[in-house]
Amino acid sequence: MPYILVKRFIYSVISLILLLTNNLFGQDPTFSQFYANQLYLAPSFAGATEEFRLGVNYRNQWPAIPGVFHTYSIAFDKAMPNFSSGIGVLATYDVAGSGDLSTTNIGLLYSYDFNITQDWHIRPGVHFKFYYLGLNIYKLIFNSQITGSGTTPPVTPPPFDKVADVDFAASALVYNDQIWAGFTLDHMFTPKQSFYGDEAQLAMKFNLFGGVRIIGNTRLRTKMIESLAIATNFQTQGKFYQTDIGLYYHKSPIIFGLWYRGIPFVTSQAGDAIIGLIGIKTDNLHIGYSYDFTISNLITSTAGAHEISLIYEFTSFSITGYKRRIRAIPCPEF
């Protein structure tokens, strides 16, 4: 029975990819440490923790290129095992270029865990968010502004320097003790993004992710002390598509990761980057650092990308000491 459900799930995802890839436009910022920012990857991960979880992420993309390309994220979620649910809050801020083109998203997430068999679970999730786009046009210089004595102010600035809208994302995740697979469909409301009031909308984004834990050794059946996992992440938005594949090795308390981005025929830029990760994982605190080493023809121009993640998990005080445990998803935390 579970294998039939998983097969139907995979077929449905493939059909959805074929339906969507012909109608997408635009591109979102991407984190290399996908599972260190699980709520950004899929709202199905909301509450997929022992009780409370706080996560902070920072990415510095291509520091050698003039203008900033920084992405910040902060997330907080809570498990509600008595209701087989999880809730969360996610805020992201991305700023790009010399004109401070910024995108801010703030939203609420909810997930529900269905126990379809003793071993298999399906976990759908939703994400309602507020979308905010900003620009400082006075930091931009156009050809028409350049004169012999310097630059002049823009003649026709846009009527809006800020654009606001609402957005929505949905996801589903299927997993057991060793395998997980899921998908996310983001920007389902295709929020507007024109400073002139034109019909310009942010394209939908589709993510397909999954993996398998090959090795998993625990102590006293509760604490994972050694594990090896292989994982992949495919995403498409507009005319761009990207596939990453990598390995995670955890030997308590150290985690190592190695990813390859740019698989031919399933990535717009074949041979894009090799990503190295090192992290420390304790019972409550996870700290990770990764570096994207560019291997494309931009190798001498970008200086790669740096990414830092910080996750803190904690529980509240219980007088009785009784706490219903959630079913753990086997994916890595980085």
Brief synopsis:
With 334 residues, the protein is mainly beta. It has 2 helices and 17 strands. The protein is globular.
Overview of this structure, please?
With 334 residues, this protein is mainly beta. The chain has one domain (2-314): monomeric porin ompg (Porin). Helix content is 7%, strand content 51%. It is built from two helices and 17 strands. The chain has helices at 2-20, 38-41, and strands spanning 52-61, 68-80, 85-97, 101-112, 114-115, 121-134, 146-147, 150-151, 162-175, 179-186, 205-219, 223-237, 240-251, 254-261, 273-281, 285-294, 305-314. It has a 14-stranded antiparallel β-barrel. A two-stranded antiparallel ribbon has the order 7-8. A hairpin with a 3-residue loop joins strand 11 and strand 12.
Question: Which labels suit this protein?
Answer:
single chain, 334 residues, mainly beta, Porin, two-stranded antiparallel ribbon, 2 helices, 7% helix
| Total strands | 17
Distance between the termini: 32 Å
Order of helices and strands: HHEEEEEEEEEEEEEEEEE
The CATH superfamily label reads monomeric porin ompg
Q: Radius of gyration in whole Å, from Cα?
A: 21 Å
Anisotropy-based shape: globular
Q: Give the helix level as a range of percent.
A: under 10%
List the SSEs and their pairings.
Layout: H1 2-20, H2 38-41, E1 52-61, E2 68-80, E3 85-97, E4 101-112, E5 114-115, E6 121-134, E7 146-147, E8 150-151, E9 162-175, E10 179-186, E11 205-219, E12 223-237, E13 240-251, E14 254-261, E15 273-281, E16 285-294, E17 305-314
Antiparallel strand pairs: 1-2, 1-17, 2-3, 3-4, 4-6, 5-6, 6-9, 7-8, 9-10, 10-11, 11-12, 12-13, 13-14, 14-15, 15-16, 16-17
